[in-house]
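Human: Can I borrow your eye for a moment on a structure tokenisation matter? Separate attempts, laid side by side, tell us more than any discussion would. Could you pick a protein and write out its sequence and tokenised fold? No explanation is needed for now; the record alone will do.

Assistant:
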Amino acid sequence: MKASHAALALLARGLVGVDIEVQPLEGSAGTRAVLVGKRLLLPAQDGGSSGGERLRRAMVAHAVAHLRHSRPARPARTLKPMGIAIVSAIEDARVERLLCRDFPGVHGWFAGSLAPAPDPLDLGFAALVSRMDRMLMLPAWQDDNHWVNKARRLFDETVAAAGLEDHDAFRTIASILANDLGQMRVRFDPQHYEVPAPYRDDNSYLWDFGETETPPDEAIALQRSGARPPPSVEGDAANPGDGPLPEGAAELELGRYSYPEWDRKLERLRPDWCTVIEKLPAWQGLLPVREQPAAASNTTERPTPLALLRARQLDRTHRLRRQWEGDDVDLNAAIEVLVDRRLRLRPDPRLFMRPGKAPRPSSVLVLLDLSESANAPGHGGARSLLDIEKQAALLLAGSNARGADRFAIHGFSSNTRAEIYYYRLLDFGRPLEAPSRAMIGAVRGRYSTRIGAALRHAASHLRAEPSGRRAILLVTDGAPSDIDVHDPRYLIEDARMAVAEAREAGVRIACIAVDGAADAYVRRIFGWRNYCIADDARSLPARLARMSARLAAAN
């Protein structure tokens, strides 16, 4: 074994041009190699097969690549474990590509020592990194995973634009990829994670953790300006402010429903493709009603109620008497004319009756987008868009409470097609009382925006409403999106199909988009007349009132 290590040391010297000490890593069979300065500790290998020799040569070549091209002991304080793992994997691929450029023969050592291809259905962190390793090492390798293909595309674009020597450019790639994994909610367990490629070292050569014994405990802190950090994947809540639920404040699941989804490429509905999970939102720190902060009531209950126009329609059961013209004679007016003539008085010529206009019954469901982006602060940073949405919906509900219209407030968010969360905040026929206000005031935004499935479920609620005008008014801040969909047009076309299905069922759908760039997608989904764009979120209450009245009055 000593002779073998001496031969490997000579190989390293030939590749890097300096003396490297190659020693066994005692008592750690099966672990990765460790590079400490110019000393390489190799784990014990079973047997002396050609495969084992090739693996040891690949270990030495990889260590040499780090010595030639990596910056050692980089500070790790700004990084978190998932980020450290992704940065290390990208750095491994970069230095290996550089070494293969100088010594083309080592490519076969690396390619022949890669980890076996993982199961295509395995979407765990280690499997995705292993698939990325293969894509970056083997140019002809194909993979159908969007994230893995994105890694190859970004890597190749960076090579073309900045060259392999630009370490910081590849660090930016790692930031983007780590952010994507956070958005995909891929879990990372740093205590059990092991670099997939068996010939690569444990990457301790690259990092300096300072005085702490362990690296930080979450995903990478992004460095690109304007990039949003990945959500936490350690719990169900995606928001940093979502702490553990109060005792007894678990969500109450009301049911699960399957809905189709339109595939624009196949041009057909995929049956039972999405699962809508209907819940009552007792989550996210909902306090007993008497303990709600006074500030909440100030923002949602104090403003002047909206004055809404009542939609009216011709009603033949409601007759207007003493009219100048009409489709029938008013017998009482005719008798009075005969009496006036006998008394030689001038008779009133208004002898007719016609149908009058009575208040038109309508059921309006306001559907709030409860995605993570709705938590972003609005103008001035004082209140979030979601706070303004809730205030507007409460004002509208308060105005309708005094009329004959039936009104409901629901909300939704999504976490892939398997989990579209649908929250019934205020149901049809329920009075707007303190518990409903508390529930609406406590709800927060999280996850993504799969509009089509939410609209289909909302339309199913309206089909059970009495005859009359039935409408859904969607309030959103962006185009439909979800973490398991990478075609930007896919969910737009599905939402458009959901609107068409609802229209055929007698349910009209309109949208208020709080997004200055929304014109293209909302027009595609809802048509030319069934949407409006609120550039300023503060105008949302007034726009919501006008759109609601328009929906109720439409023919």
